[in-house]
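Example record

The entry below shows one chain as it appears in the dataset: sequence first, then C-alpha coordinates.
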Amino acid sequence: MTTPRFVPAPLLVLGAVVSVQFGGALAATLVPQIGAAGSVVLRLGFATAVLLAVARPRWRGHSARAWLTVVAFGVAMGLMNFAFYGSLAHLPIGVAVTIEFTGPLTLAAVLSRRPRDLLAVAAAAIGVLLISQALSVPLAELEGTGILLALLAGVCWAGYIIFSGRAGAEFPALEGLALAMVVAMLVVLPFGLWDVTVHGTSAWTGAVVLTGLGVAILSSVLPYSLELLALRRLPAKVFGILLSLEPAVAALAGLVVLGQRLDPVQLGGMVLVVLASTMVLGLGARSEREPSAT
Protein backbone atom coordinates (compact mmCIF):
# COMPACT_ATOMS: atom_id res chain seq x y z
CA MET A 1 0.00 0.00 0.00
CA THR A 2 1.61 3.24 -1.12
CA THR A 3 0.62 6.85 -1.37
CA PRO A 4 2.24 9.80 -3.19
CA ARG A 5 4.91 11.38 -1.00
CA PHE A 6 3.54 14.86 -1.72
CA VAL A 7 0.42 14.02 0.32
CA PRO A 8 1.29 15.28 3.84
CA ALA A 9 1.07 12.60 6.53
CA PRO A 10 -0.98 14.86 8.87
CA LEU A 11 -3.54 15.23 6.08
CA LEU A 12 -3.85 11.44 5.93
CA VAL A 13 -4.56 11.28 9.68
CA LEU A 14 -7.11 14.09 9.44
CA GLY A 15 -8.74 12.19 6.59
CA ALA A 16 -8.91 9.11 8.82
CA VAL A 17 -10.43 11.10 11.69
CA VAL A 18 -13.05 12.68 9.44
CA SER A 19 -13.83 9.31 7.86
CA VAL A 20 -14.33 7.58 11.23
CA GLN A 21 -16.60 10.25 12.66
CA PHE A 22 -18.75 10.71 9.58
CA GLY A 23 -18.98 6.92 9.43
CA GLY A 24 -20.20 7.01 13.03
CA ALA A 25 -22.78 9.65 12.17
CA LEU A 26 -23.97 7.50 9.28
CA ALA A 27 -24.19 4.53 11.65
CA ALA A 28 -26.39 6.58 13.98
CA THR A 29 -29.02 6.62 11.22
CA LEU A 30 -29.01 2.81 11.20
CA VAL A 31 -29.43 2.25 14.95
CA PRO A 32 -33.15 3.23 15.09
CA GLN A 33 -33.88 0.95 12.12
CA ILE A 34 -32.00 -2.27 12.93
CA GLY A 35 -30.65 -1.70 16.46
CA ALA A 36 -27.14 -1.16 17.77
CA ALA A 37 -26.08 -4.79 17.45
CA GLY A 38 -27.54 -5.08 13.96
CA SER A 39 -25.61 -1.98 12.91
CA VAL A 40 -22.39 -3.38 14.36
CA VAL A 41 -22.91 -6.72 12.60
CA LEU A 42 -23.31 -4.91 9.28
CA ARG A 43 -20.19 -2.82 9.83
CA LEU A 44 -18.01 -5.66 11.09
CA GLY A 45 -19.37 -8.11 8.54
CA PHE A 46 -18.32 -6.03 5.56
CA ALA A 47 -15.04 -4.91 7.16
CA THR A 48 -14.15 -8.47 8.15
CA ALA A 49 -14.77 -9.74 4.64
CA VAL A 50 -12.46 -7.08 3.21
CA LEU A 51 -9.70 -7.73 5.75
CA LEU A 52 -9.85 -11.51 5.32
CA ALA A 53 -9.53 -11.07 1.56
CA VAL A 54 -6.59 -8.68 1.93
CA ALA A 55 -4.71 -10.25 4.85
CA ARG A 56 -5.42 -13.95 4.10
CA PRO A 57 -4.53 -14.90 7.71
CA ARG A 58 -3.20 -18.33 8.65
CA TRP A 59 -5.55 -20.27 10.94
CA ARG A 60 -2.91 -22.77 12.05
CA GLY A 61 0.55 -22.58 13.54
CA HIS A 62 -0.22 -19.98 16.23
CA SER A 63 0.64 -20.44 19.89
CA ALA A 64 -1.94 -20.56 22.67
CA ARG A 65 -0.74 -17.14 23.87
CA ALA A 66 -1.23 -15.71 20.40
CA TRP A 67 -4.79 -17.03 20.24
CA LEU A 68 -5.58 -15.70 23.72
CA THR A 69 -4.31 -12.31 22.62
CA VAL A 70 -6.35 -12.23 19.43
CA VAL A 71 -9.49 -13.41 21.27
CA ALA A 72 -9.08 -10.67 23.89
CA PHE A 73 -8.46 -8.17 21.08
CA GLY A 74 -11.61 -9.28 19.26
CA VAL A 75 -13.79 -9.24 22.39
CA ALA A 76 -12.62 -5.71 23.21
CA MET A 77 -13.29 -4.62 19.63
CA GLY A 78 -16.76 -6.17 19.49
CA LEU A 79 -17.89 -4.78 22.84
CA MET A 80 -16.40 -1.37 22.06
CA ASN A 81 -18.44 -1.09 18.87
CA PHE A 82 -21.58 -2.52 20.46
CA ALA A 83 -21.44 -0.17 23.47
CA PHE A 84 -20.64 2.87 21.33
CA TYR A 85 -23.42 2.24 18.82
CA GLY A 86 -25.76 1.63 21.75
CA SER A 87 -24.83 5.04 23.18
CA LEU A 88 -25.76 6.68 19.86
CA ALA A 89 -29.39 5.74 20.51
CA HIS A 90 -29.33 8.01 23.58
CA LEU A 91 -26.67 10.69 22.99
CA PRO A 92 -25.55 13.04 20.22
CA ILE A 93 -22.49 11.58 18.53
CA GLY A 94 -20.28 14.46 19.68
CA VAL A 95 -21.19 13.76 23.31
CA ALA A 96 -20.75 9.99 22.92
CA VAL A 97 -17.31 10.29 21.29
CA THR A 98 -16.11 12.81 23.86
CA ILE A 99 -17.08 10.53 26.75
CA GLU A 100 -15.66 7.46 24.99
CA PHE A 101 -12.38 9.29 24.35
CA THR A 102 -11.64 9.37 28.08
CA GLY A 103 -10.78 5.64 27.83
CA PRO A 104 -7.59 5.92 25.76
CA LEU A 105 -6.82 9.26 27.38
CA THR A 106 -6.85 7.75 30.87
CA LEU A 107 -4.84 4.74 29.69
CA ALA A 108 -2.14 6.99 28.21
CA ALA A 109 -1.97 9.08 31.39
CA VAL A 110 -1.71 6.03 33.66
CA LEU A 111 1.04 4.50 31.52
CA SER A 112 3.00 7.77 31.45
CA ARG A 113 2.73 8.29 35.24
CA ARG A 114 3.44 12.00 34.83
CA PRO A 115 1.57 14.24 37.31
CA ARG A 116 0.84 16.66 34.49
CA ASP A 117 -0.98 13.97 32.55
CA LEU A 118 -3.05 12.96 35.57
CA LEU A 119 -4.07 16.62 35.95
CA ALA A 120 -5.05 16.60 32.28
CA VAL A 121 -7.30 13.58 32.90
CA ALA A 122 -8.91 15.44 35.80
CA ALA A 123 -9.60 18.35 33.45
CA ALA A 124 -11.06 15.91 30.91
CA ALA A 125 -13.32 14.48 33.62
CA ILE A 126 -14.68 17.96 34.26
CA GLY A 127 -15.18 18.32 30.52
CA VAL A 128 -17.15 15.07 30.42
CA LEU A 129 -19.36 16.28 33.27
CA LEU A 130 -20.08 19.46 31.30
CA ILE A 131 -20.76 17.81 27.97
CA SER A 132 -22.93 15.09 29.52
CA GLN A 133 -24.98 17.81 31.29
CA ALA A 134 -24.60 15.91 34.56
CA LEU A 135 -24.21 19.23 36.41
CA SER A 136 -27.11 21.04 34.79
CA VAL A 137 -29.86 18.48 34.13
CA PRO A 138 -31.93 16.79 36.85
CA LEU A 139 -30.81 13.25 37.52
CA ALA A 140 -34.15 11.83 36.38
CA GLU A 141 -33.74 13.52 32.97
CA LEU A 142 -30.10 12.59 32.49
CA GLU A 143 -29.31 10.12 29.71
CA GLY A 144 -27.68 7.74 32.15
CA THR A 145 -27.89 4.71 29.86
CA GLY A 146 -26.13 6.52 27.02
CA ILE A 147 -23.43 7.90 29.33
CA LEU A 148 -22.74 4.47 30.85
CA LEU A 149 -22.57 2.86 27.40
CA ALA A 150 -20.16 5.55 26.18
CA LEU A 151 -17.99 5.03 29.27
CA LEU A 152 -18.04 1.27 28.68
CA ALA A 153 -17.00 1.89 25.08
CA GLY A 154 -14.10 3.97 26.41
CA VAL A 155 -12.97 1.17 28.71
CA CYS A 156 -13.15 -1.29 25.81
CA TRP A 157 -11.24 1.19 23.63
CA ALA A 158 -8.42 1.16 26.18
CA GLY A 159 -8.45 -2.65 26.09
CA TYR A 160 -8.49 -2.52 22.29
CA ILE A 161 -5.31 -0.41 22.34
CA ILE A 162 -3.52 -2.78 24.71
CA PHE A 163 -4.41 -5.97 22.86
CA SER A 164 -3.92 -4.38 19.45
CA GLY A 165 -0.29 -3.77 20.33
CA ARG A 166 0.14 -7.31 21.61
CA ALA A 167 -1.54 -8.77 18.53
CA GLY A 168 0.81 -6.74 16.36
CA ALA A 169 3.73 -8.39 18.13
CA GLU A 170 2.27 -11.90 17.82
CA PHE A 171 1.02 -11.78 14.21
CA PRO A 172 2.59 -10.45 11.01
CA ALA A 173 1.07 -7.59 9.00
CA LEU A 174 -2.76 -7.52 9.25
CA GLU A 175 -3.25 -11.15 10.34
CA GLY A 176 -3.99 -10.35 13.98
CA LEU A 177 -6.49 -7.64 13.09
CA ALA A 178 -8.28 -9.87 10.58
CA LEU A 179 -8.60 -12.75 13.06
CA ALA A 180 -9.72 -10.35 15.81
CA MET A 181 -12.43 -9.02 13.50
CA VAL A 182 -13.79 -12.57 13.15
CA VAL A 183 -13.87 -12.87 16.95
CA ALA A 184 -15.60 -9.48 17.25
CA MET A 185 -18.24 -10.64 14.77
CA LEU A 186 -18.89 -13.78 16.82
CA VAL A 187 -19.24 -11.66 19.97
CA VAL A 188 -21.92 -9.34 18.55
CA LEU A 189 -23.68 -11.79 16.21
CA PRO A 190 -26.07 -13.24 18.88
CA PHE A 191 -27.15 -9.71 19.80
CA GLY A 192 -27.53 -8.87 16.11
CA LEU A 193 -29.80 -11.87 15.61
CA TRP A 194 -31.84 -10.73 18.60
CA ASP A 195 -32.17 -7.28 17.01
CA VAL A 196 -33.52 -8.98 13.87
CA THR A 197 -36.30 -10.56 15.95
CA VAL A 198 -37.08 -7.17 17.53
CA HIS A 199 -37.02 -5.01 14.40
CA GLY A 200 -38.00 -7.67 11.88
CA THR A 201 -36.27 -8.81 8.71
CA SER A 202 -38.24 -6.23 6.73
CA ALA A 203 -36.09 -3.51 8.29
CA TRP A 204 -33.04 -4.91 6.50
CA THR A 205 -33.74 -3.23 3.19
CA GLY A 206 -31.28 -2.77 0.35
CA ALA A 207 -30.76 0.84 1.43
CA VAL A 208 -29.93 -0.27 4.97
CA VAL A 209 -27.40 -2.83 3.74
CA LEU A 210 -25.78 -0.26 1.44
CA THR A 211 -25.59 2.18 4.35
CA GLY A 212 -23.90 -0.55 6.39
CA LEU A 213 -21.37 -0.99 3.60
CA GLY A 214 -20.72 2.74 3.66
CA VAL A 215 -20.24 2.64 7.43
CA ALA A 216 -17.77 -0.24 7.10
CA ILE A 217 -15.72 1.65 4.51
CA LEU A 218 -15.79 4.98 6.36
CA SER A 219 -15.33 3.59 9.88
CA SER A 220 -12.93 0.70 9.28
CA VAL A 221 -11.38 0.13 5.85
CA LEU A 222 -10.54 3.71 4.80
CA PRO A 223 -9.34 5.15 8.14
CA TYR A 224 -7.19 2.14 9.00
CA SER A 225 -5.53 2.33 5.58
CA LEU A 226 -4.88 6.07 5.91
CA GLU A 227 -3.47 5.72 9.43
CA LEU A 228 -1.25 2.85 8.34
CA LEU A 229 0.23 5.05 5.62
CA ALA A 230 0.62 8.07 7.90
CA LEU A 231 2.27 6.17 10.75
CA ARG A 232 5.21 5.30 8.50
CA ARG A 233 6.37 8.93 8.44
CA LEU A 234 4.69 10.77 11.28
CA PRO A 235 6.06 11.45 14.81
CA ALA A 236 4.03 10.05 17.70
CA LYS A 237 3.26 13.47 19.19
CA VAL A 238 1.81 14.80 15.92
CA PHE A 239 -0.29 11.67 15.47
CA GLY A 240 -1.62 12.03 19.03
CA ILE A 241 -2.51 15.69 18.60
CA LEU A 242 -4.43 14.97 15.41
CA LEU A 243 -6.33 12.08 17.01
CA SER A 244 -7.29 14.44 19.83
CA LEU A 245 -9.49 16.28 17.35
CA GLU A 246 -11.89 13.32 17.14
CA PRO A 247 -14.50 14.70 19.59
CA ALA A 248 -14.64 18.02 17.73
CA VAL A 249 -14.91 16.29 14.35
CA ALA A 250 -17.64 14.04 15.79
CA ALA A 251 -19.62 17.12 16.82
CA LEU A 252 -19.23 18.51 13.30
CA ALA A 253 -20.37 15.21 11.78
CA GLY A 254 -23.37 15.17 14.11
CA LEU A 255 -24.31 18.67 13.01
CA VAL A 256 -23.87 18.05 9.28
CA VAL A 257 -25.34 14.54 9.02
CA LEU A 258 -27.81 14.41 11.92
CA GLY A 259 -28.59 18.05 12.66
CA GLN A 260 -27.40 17.64 16.27
CA ARG A 261 -26.42 20.87 18.03
CA LEU A 262 -24.51 21.16 21.30
CA ASP A 263 -25.05 24.07 23.69
CA PRO A 264 -22.17 26.39 24.72
CA VAL A 265 -21.57 24.52 28.00
CA GLN A 266 -21.26 21.22 26.16
CA LEU A 267 -18.90 22.76 23.63
CA GLY A 268 -16.81 24.09 26.52
CA GLY A 269 -16.62 20.59 27.98
CA MET A 270 -15.52 19.25 24.62
CA VAL A 271 -12.75 21.85 24.41
CA LEU A 272 -11.47 20.69 27.82
CA VAL A 273 -11.33 17.08 26.66
CA VAL A 274 -9.59 18.00 23.38
CA LEU A 275 -7.00 20.12 25.21
CA ALA A 276 -6.39 17.37 27.78
CA SER A 277 -6.04 14.80 24.99
CA THR A 278 -3.59 17.03 23.15
CA MET A 279 -1.48 17.34 26.29
CA VAL A 280 -1.44 13.60 27.04
CA LEU A 281 -1.56 11.96 23.62
CA GLY A 282 0.30 14.65 21.70
CA LEU A 283 2.55 17.02 23.59
CA GLY A 284 3.28 14.37 26.19
CA ALA A 285 4.23 11.73 23.64
CA ARG A 286 7.86 10.82 23.22
CA SER A 287 8.84 12.66 20.08
CA GLU A 288 11.79 10.41 19.44
CA ARG A 289 9.63 7.30 19.15
CA GLU A 290 8.16 6.60 15.74
CA PRO A 291 4.89 4.67 16.02
CA SER A 292 4.73 1.17 14.62
CA ALA A 293 2.75 0.50 11.49
CA THR A 294 1.60 -2.91 12.67
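Notes for this example: Residues 9-55 form the longest helix (47 residues). Residues 9-283 form one domain.
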